């Protein structure tokens, strides 16, 4: 699957992104259409379509992603004020890029409920 979807292309360096962090398993980059002063996307490097594909044998990536989120929040100074993690799953969930990703939104007061 690598190289086919847009986020796989970002992982492979085929299309540019403002990369904030990466290691062997995850990649963090700035959303191209930010919805808040800070809008990061946190993705597994390995292609996973969405949360529906998470099972016991690949769930470690979720732990990796979620243990990295507070580090990003500290780094960007929003840990105390707060922030929001969003996962859009499937069409009704508003997913437009079918490679698992979590949005980290911060730097402003976010309203609730979402649309
Ligand atoms: P979702 O609607 O949850 O699937 O989110 C997809 C997100 O990817 C949207 O917020 C887009 O703005 C963002 N996006 C799409 N293409 C790119 C890109 N090339 N670089 C960075 N972010 C992107
Ligand atoms: Zn992909």
TrEMBL record:
A motif (Histidine triad motif) lies at residues 99-103. The active site is at residue 101. SUPFAM superfamilies: HIT-like. Residues 6-115 form the HIT domain. GO terms for molecular function: catalytic activity. PANTHER family: HISTIDINE TRIAD HIT PROTEIN. This is Histidine triad nucleotide-binding protein.
């Amino acid at each position: 699957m690598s190289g086919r979807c847009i986020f796989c292309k970002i992982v492979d360096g085929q299309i540019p992104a403002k990369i904030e962090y990466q290691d062997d398993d995850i990649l963090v980059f700035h959303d191209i259409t930010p919805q808040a002063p800070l809008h990061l996307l946190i993705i597994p490097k390995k292609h996973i379509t969405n949360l529906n594909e998470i099972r016991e044998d690949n769930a470690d990536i979720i732990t990796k992603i979620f243990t990295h989120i507070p580090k990003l929040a500290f780094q960007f100074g929003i840990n105390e004020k707060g922030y929001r993690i969003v996962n859009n799953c499937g069409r009704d969930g508003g997913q437009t890029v079918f490679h698992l990703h979590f949005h980290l939104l911060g730097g402003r007061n976010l309203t609730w409920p979402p649309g």
